[in-house]
Amino acid sequence: MSENIFYRQTHLADRLDEAEKKEAGAYASSYMKFLDAGKTERECVACAVEAAEKAGFVPFVPGTELKPGDRIYSVNRGKSMTLAVIGKQDLSHGCNIAGAHIDSPRLDLKQLPFYEDGEMAMLKTHYYGGIKKYQWVTIPLALHGVAVRADGTAVPVTIGEDDSDPVFMITDLLPHLAADQIKKTAADLFTGENLNVFLGSTPLPEGDDRFKAKALELLHEKYGLCEEDFISAEICAVPAMKARYLGLDRSMIASYGHDDRSCAWAELMAICHIQAPERTAVCILTDKEEVGSDGVTGSQSTAFEFFMQDLCDAQGVSLRRCFEQSFCLSADVCNAFDPNFPEVSEKRNNAKCNYGVGILKFTGARGKSGSNDASAETVGTVRRIFADAGVTWQMAELGKVDQGGGGTIAKFMANRNIETIDAGVPVLSMHAPYEAVSVYDCYMTYKAVKAVYERR
After folding, report:
1. Angle ∠(166,168,171) on CA atoms, nearest 5
2. Three-state secondary structure call for residue 119
3. What pLDDT sits at residue 48?
4. Distances, alpha carbon 91 to alpha carbons 96, 172, 238, 276, 279, in Å
5. Nearest to residue 268, comparing CAs of 71, 67, 440?
6. CB-based burial, 208-247: b 16+ in 10 Å, e otherwise
7. From residue 207, how far is each of 113, 122, 199, 212, 214 by CA, in Å?
8. How would you classify residue 373: left for phi > 0, otherwise alpha for psi between -120 and 50, otherwise beta?
9. How far apart are CA 214 and CA 205, in angstroms?
10. CB 105 within 8 A of CB 296
């Protein structure tokens, strides 16, 4: 009887057959290429457009007649993207949505970043998202982004990824002189104004600010940019490390940006691999989640409504009716149980690596503050979807009740009267410059999103 009434979990290595293990390995390989190519939201969108067009997606032109099976996408200012496969049923029956964010914590360059001190050229930064500042010190960094000249010309910038490129770094004190430093708490070891990136130590032969001038000269030679162009630039310092298999068994992937690109890639591959679903399938790749989802490219923007309104108008359907009949999987990562830090997790309800996609009924902080908190009916719906598609899942929450917490885009989708629940890949070392996820969990999240898209 216990086999029927107990809820039991099984390690995916014991559940997957050899064919699925091989599929998981191939999926991991493609995902790692995406991680290396997409270290900013702009780069992720460029990768997504390339993959989508290979899968038959075309840019959406409002007013275009749409028929079942049509594959369309829309890019919002180069930093977010929405894709759709038109379903057999019209949008009065709702649509199946999956939403993930493609921004990750990083160090943005300030508007006037260049200065020199101690005969060194340096860069001032302003961190983006929730980070532990000390983790970003003494690691190789690369510069990614775009600078826009006064004439409107956009100049892409990438330095530090090619093996022949130099890298950048934030320096730290040697332990011999750190007696006062190590007495500080981890939060006080570095301030935001301490996160200054080393740029160069060679001067021009003469003139003012010779070290800063030399660095600017080199950038001008490579990109044709002057200092004023960096005022209208979005350039950030990100880890220069590549995605690598982690562990002797290669069961995990170590990389920058698993939060939330592990879910974004699952969404993108899933919508590329479906054909003619019953309901219209919609993939959202959004920006600004790490800083509250505000702005024109965040999930609180009306850009999503405009896209959906155009689809509804093409079918003579009310957007309001479409939303109330829709279902959304807010595909965002959760924390994985870490045996090095068991004290922050309630083990019975925390996700574990290699046990499948983590379903979060709620996120938020402490008393579920700022959470969507999906209904029992919504949890039942996602259980049924996953069971029918053979998706291995586990329930999850973000640590012990009074420990802290976090948020996703779920509440913003739910505020549109769309039935919404969170689910995603469990992550170790979340928001660190180098995070870790399970190969099997990534693959299972892809299966989960595909199952949602194909929901009848």
Report:
1. 140
2. coil
3. 98
4. 10, 56, 41, 14, 7
5. 71
6. eeebbbbbbebbeeeeebeeebbeebbbbbbbbbebebbe
7. 20, 18, 19, 11, 10
8. left
9. 9
10. no
- Comparing C-alpha atoms, which of 388, 247, 293, 349 is closest to residue 7? 349
Question: DSSP per residue over 225-251, as a string?
Answer: --GGGGGGEEEEEEE-PPPEEESTT--
Residues 116 and 122 sit within 8 Å (Cβ to Cβ): yes
Give per-residue burial for 339-372: e unless 16+ CB within 10 Å, then b.
Answer: eeeeeebeeeebbbbbbbbbbbbbbbbeeeebbb
One DSSP character per residue, 121-142 reads: EEEEEEEESS--GGGGSSS-EE
**Torsion over CA of 405, 407, 411 and 412, rounded to 10 degrees?**
160
One-letter identity of residue 348 = R
Q: Could you give the CA distance from residue 28 to residue 85 in angstroms, rounded to a whole number?
A: 24
Q: Annotate 342-363 with DSSP letters as a single string.
A: GGGS-GGGSB-TTS-EEEES--
pLDDT tens profile 245-283: 999 999 999 999 999 999 999 999 999 999 989 999 999
Domains of the chain: 2-104+256-453 (3.40.630.10), 106-239 (2.30.250.10)
| Residue 323, token pair as written in the block | 């939303």
Note whether 47 and 57 are within 8 A (CB). Answer: no
In what helix (H) or strand (E) does residue 176 lie, and over which residues does it extend? none
pTM listed for this prediction? 0.96
Q: What angle do CA 212, 215, 218 make, to 5 degrees?
A: 150
Residues 357, 360, 364, 366: is their CA dihedral positive or negative? negative
In 3D space, the residue among 362, 445, 367 whose CA is nearest the CA of residue 407 turns out to be 362
Q: Is 187 left (phi over 0), alpha (psi -120 to 50) or beta?
A: alpha
Q: For every one of its 456 residues, what pLDDT tens digit does the chain have, with 9 covering 90 and above?
A: 566 788 889 999 999 999 999 999 999 999 999 999 999 999 999 999 999 999 999 999 999 999 999 999 999 999 999 999 999 999 999 999 999 999 999 999 999 999 999 999 999 999 999 999 999 999 999 999 999 999 999 999 999 999 999 999 999 999 999 999 999 999 999 999 999 999 999 999 999 999 999 999 999 999 999 999 999 999 999 999 999 999 999 999 999 999 999 999 999 999 999 998 999 999 999 999 999 999 999 999 999 999 999 999 999 999 999 999 999 999 999 999 999 999 999 989 999 999 999 999 999 888 898 899 999 999 999 999 999 999 999 999 998 999 888 889 999 999 999 999 999 999 999 999 999 999 999 999 999 999 999 998
Residue 205 sits at φ, ψ, to 5 deg, of -60, -35
